[in-house]
Amino acid sequence: MRRVSMRQWEFASSPHLGSTEGAAMADEDGQLWYLKDWGLPYKNKTANELLGNDLYRAAGVLVPEVVTDETGRFHASRWVEGRPLSDLTSEELDRVRADAQDGFMVDAWLSNWDVAGTGNMRLGDDGRVWRIDAGGALFFHAMGVARRLGRHARADVESMRDPAVATEQGAKLFADVSEQALIRGAEMVASVSARTIQQLSAKAQFALDADLRLDTQVIIDRRNDIADLFGLMVED
Predict the structure, then answer these.
(1) Mean of the per-residue pLDDT values for the chain?
(2) Is there a contact between 74 and 42 (Cβ–Cβ < 8 Å)?
(3) Phi/psi zone of residue 7: left (φ > 0), alpha (ψ -120 to 50 degrees), beta?
(4) What's this model's pTM, rounded to 2 decimal places?
């Protein structure tokens, strides 16, 4: 995670890409970024989102680069040209469904119930599915309310794709995840070592001087729980 000066960035537009309102901004080189402001207090929420984004990347899920300003209050993700999955027709969604579902077990590991929410997943012009907003993962709900994260992820594996309890968008996208996709996703989760989880957690907290002590062991326990579902080995 880099810290950059955003003082010369220029406003481009106000797209609604996730659960928290933001703005599209152009940096000095013309590169577009999606800027978010959690408001005050912001450090714990931003640290949590940065950690979620880093864990997605560590597991092999496509996420954009995220940077913060010098204070850490404002953070921005590199703009992904394309269209939100929520804007696709049923036929278009069917063509990319398998790509989106491959990351489902990582979503469940991070308890990111809002992953399929309006604008949070994007079909890039490169033809790949990107997860562009991790604000609803781990220790905060999508709107920034703190929550207790349980040590067992298998409940989320079931409930996040159950039409009776999942979000409408989540059920639409994940209800028919195949067994093969679940196994592939579990392998992605199991591939993230405990050491990597600890390092990424420490980096997120240090970068923002957050006073939230992200419970790294809970994240590791949830990884282990998913690995155990399919008899996978994990690395410490």
Answers:
(1) 85
(2) no
(3) alpha
(4) 0.89
